[in-house]
Amino acid sequence: MKPNFQKIIEEISREVLPLLGLGKVANYIPELAKIDPRKIGISICDIDGNVYSTGDCKTLFSIQSISKLFTLCLAMKLEDNELWNRVGMEPSGTAFNSLVLLEEENGIPRNPFINAGAIVITDIILGKSKHPSDSILKFMREITQNKNIKFNDTVAVSERKHGHRNAALSYLMKDYGNIHKEVEEVLNLYCRHCSLELNCEDLARASYFLINQGKDIDGKTVLIPRDVKRVNSLMMTSGLYNNAGKFAFEVGLPAKSGVGGGIVGVLPGQFSISVWSPELNESGNSLIGMKVMEMFTTKSGMSVF
Ligand code: GLN
Where along this sequence does the record place binding of substrate (predicted)? Predict the structure, then answer.
């Protein structure tokens, strides 16, 4: 029998309340520091398209690195061959914005979910699309089935002003020949897609094709099954940076996090789940979000393992 998703997420929402105050809201992007830290939203979209939600599930938030999941999918649609020569498929074991491995490995980022990898993906989209910002927005609106999805340019500009590490990563990769467009242009688009605002329900819906072998709720192909397998595997091994092992151990779902406090996870054939709680742990992942995911797979008895 299918577990009662609504009852489980309501129970979890109450049980995680004592954890409020244990994490810290991201403040290296000044605009993100303004967020109310006490928000908690959870949404699930099951394979039949039913959506179950609690708390602040309708409040928009900055998806930040979760956008890397969607830009990767878009880049895979635009560029099939060269992509995997320019970015790897191994976990990094380092922080999302680390420079350490990049020089040792000749400017080829370990995977598309660390900042360096996502910046290469942004460069690929810039090279393949005439109107790259519009292409990203169009893709996001299609997969969320929500025409109101937007970038938040105040957040994008705030990050652009303070994102010196991302500039350092980009210039280093440019030196190795792994950034083809102008660095400034790449960084502008990268910050822009990180500033996308979705709510938990949008995010659960947006990930539906990853649980349905690449097809959206209307049966339209978003990604071919081989690429869905690849994306979900990368989420499992690298979606939570240096917490990827801990997350696999405790939760057992492919997932992607962002410093806005969101996490989205998928169980192919069953459900996608999104959580938003802005306070982060020391690895930049939502502290309550990780706990919610762990409690959900434990209580429902449903994980990939
Ligand atoms: N835009 C953020 C950055 O580049 C994304 C990081 C994240 O969400 N982990 O630092």
Answer: 65, 115, 159, 166, 190, 241, 259
